[in-house]
Amino acid sequence: MQTDIDPRNLIGRKAFDRNGTKIGTVDEVYLDDATGVPEWAAIRTGLFSRDAFVPLEPSRLVEGTLHIPFERSLIKDAPDFGVGRHLSPEQELQLYHHYGLDVGTPPPLPDHDFGHLAGTDDG
Q1: What is the pLDDT along the chain (123 residues), one digit of tens a residue?
Q2: In the chain, where do the E strands start and end?
Q3: CB 27 within 8 A of CB 42
């Protein structure tokens, strides 16, 4: 998602699935604890329905509406953790798995050539 967008400006925007079907309205935005970047949005799916958590990456803001690249049924079946509370790392992991997103592994450590070991005749 475009990271230059103020997450407060997402609240109240309409949200649509990959087919252009309206899902609901952005109710809350959750920031990554480490980076402060908007990571999840809670979408109010109906007047008496619950909020569904959706990933903001790879979602896109297009002409003032949030477009989420997943089917409406998958979004509505997302784990429900309630809104207004912090998402734990375990809850985020459940959401990543639900959407089939790569959680991302840390990059490998650089392979340094530290030279020869002391006391060896190599070299």
Answers
A1: 555 567 888 999 999 999 999 999 999 999 988 888 899 999 998 767 789 999 999 999 999 999 999 999 999 999 989 888 899 999 999 999 999 998 765 445 555 554 555 555 655
A2: 14-16, 22-31, 38-44, 51-55, 60-62, 65-67
A3: yes
